[in-house]
Amino acid sequence: MLNTLRKSIRQYKKLTLLSPVLVTGEVIIEMLIPYLVGILIDNGIMKGNMPYIEKWGLILLILTVFSVAFGMGASYASAHAAAGFAANLRKDMFYHVQDYSFENIDKFSSASLVTRMTTDVNNIQIAYQMSIRIAVRAPMMLIVSVVMSIIISPRLSLIFLVVAPVFAILLGLIIKAAYPYFPKIFKGYDQMNQVVRENIRGIREVKTYVQEKPQIRKFEKASGFIYKLYATAQKIMSLNSLVVTAVLNITNLAICWFGAKEIVGGGLQPGQLISMFSYSNSVLFSLNMLAMIFTQLVVAGASGRRIAAVINEKPTIKDPRKPLKTVNNGEVVFDHVNFKYDPSDKAYALKDINLNIRPGETIGMIGKTGSSKSTLVAMIPRLYDVMSGAVRVAGHNVKSYDLKTLRDNVAMVLQNNVLFSGTIKDNLKWGNENASDEEILVAAKIAHADDFIQEMPDKYDTVVEQGGNNVSGGQKQRITIARALLKNPKILILDDSTSAVDTHTEREIREALAKDLPETTKIIISQRIVSIKDADRIVVMDEGKIQDIGTHEELMKSNDLYSSIAKFQEEQGK
User: 10 Å Cβ neighbour count for 46?
Assistant: First the structure.
């Protein structure tokens, strides 16, 4: 974990190293001041020597200024180093997620990834800042304070040798008791973020079905789970302050008792006793800081493992060593393809799929819900990889292609495609960032999106609200079809992507695709027979298998499943 995280420090190494150096200077001066104050009291104040008091008073003032300067520098260096480290961690995780396959994404929920990039990184940032400042300051204060105490009075310093181990043992027991709660707390954050994410994304459905109260109960349950765990952990950790207070009071009483005897016996000066009190407080304060650091490190340790898991996750789909950079045509061949989402699953999502699709051919695909139609086409751009068998495009296994090349030549339009914040033109340019206005216009006309875009206030410069809420479902689908067309793909996959479009407009889109993209292989998945009846061939799928292949007329005569769907839809007027 540490090796993974430290790679993200990068350009902040100098600030990371500078902070301990400045802290060292700060602590040395700060710990020297009580010793000098004791000398000032014994040789200046107790003897009424004003020149001596003025001289050492000035020296103490200068040392204080230097200590403050070193402290401010250390704070600046540690804060900037920690903030930069956190920014790099977020960047590294985000960049790494971009290389994930769907299989990798399925392993981490989206809510969990958000939690790891926010809450977990914040925990690491706090721990890192403490590590390069307080974690250096506390042990140095402890060591220097003990050394100075020994210099002043070896006999009184023995008190620390008794108290410090007891204090450390008590704090260790407290931390050990609290530690198991923190990994559970972060899992609770994942659950709560999932509830919030689902509620916000589906807020229209929530209000439509009047499900506000059940949603509130779900949130309260997730939030309450975190509260209970966190409250329990904090109750345990709050014992730190009780231990610190008790040990500090006992130590000061011991120093008062034995120190008074030392003064009466002539073995200690009053100023030295005051210095001992200062070093006593410093010793216990440093131990308390160490306890606080250990507490934060416990939290950060759980967060660090979650972050490292994201960064260390190996993408299951990678570019080959010598990838093909050109897709010559839109031929697609499924050769004895088998696939399941989880290797431990007993059932296959796809079972022995064999299908040859010629370049420029239009293939319709239909089947019951859950028959793995979408899973099948996801194999073409390698959103998933087959478990066995092979998928070939233009005569080559898809695993032989450069991923960018392959996916630039395979355009997928899904039923629930997403529009991103920005203008309509910005969204269209996802298909081709260098597309000219003329190319955008042509693609929009083929997708029958130009008509309604022209009626918008700013036409192609109209701003799309978050999630595309200011356009209808059918309009959103037509924009995403136009976006796909701008890729000028060899293979176009329409996965139920006209379900929100009226049948008349859908027919016009199909006719435009056939006319303007004759060489593009088109795979149309639909639940409506009317959407695929004019395809060159229609694939009927059932339970992950290809049940039948043929034209509309052939399947109406030979396939009971297809003909029953067609007759039912005809009776319903679909």
Answer: 12
Q: How many CB atoms lie within 10 A of CB 229?
A: 19
pTM: 0.69
Going by the DSSP 8-state scheme, the letter that residue 1 receives in this structure is -
- Could you give the angle at the alpha carbon of 45 between the alpha carbons of 43 and 47, nearest 5°? 60
Q: CB atoms < 10 A from the CB of 350, how many?
A: 23
Q: What are the tens digits of pLDDT across the range 142-152? A: 888 778 778 87
**Contacts within 8 Å (CB) and 24+ apart, 49-56:** none
Spatial CA neighbour of 561 closest among 545, 544, 542, 543: 542
How far apart are alpha carbons 336 and 342 in whole angstroms?
Answer: 19
DSSP 179: T
Phi, psi of 270 (to 5 degrees): -55, -40
Q: What integer pLDDT is reported at residue 572 of this predicted model?
A: 67
Give the CATH architecture of domain 2-312. Up-down Bundle (1.20)
Q: Say whether pLDDT at 453 is over 80.
A: yes
Non-local CB neighbours of 130 within 8 Å, separated by 6+ positions: 292, 293, 296
Can you give the residue ranges of every domain in the chain?
2-312, 332-572
pLDDT tens profile 338-366: 998 887 778 889 999 999 999 999 999 99
Residues near 127 by Cβ (< 8 Å), separated by ≥ 6? 293, 296, 297, 299, 300
**What residue spans of 41-100 are helical by DSSP H?**
50-98
3-state secondary structure of 502: coil
Q: What is the fold, at CATH topology level, of the domain defined by 332-572?
A: Rossmann fold (3.40.50)
How much is the pLDDT for 573?
A: 62
Distance CA 565, CA 530 (A): 11
The first and second tokens of residue 286, run together, are 């440093």
Q: In whole angstroms, give the CA distance from residue 399 to residue 401.
A: 6
For residue 270, name the pLDDT band (cuts at 50, 70, 90).
confident
Residue-wise pLDDT tens digits, 401-447: 999 999 999 998 877 777 787 888 988 888 888 889 899 999 999 98
d(CA 523, CA 161): 79
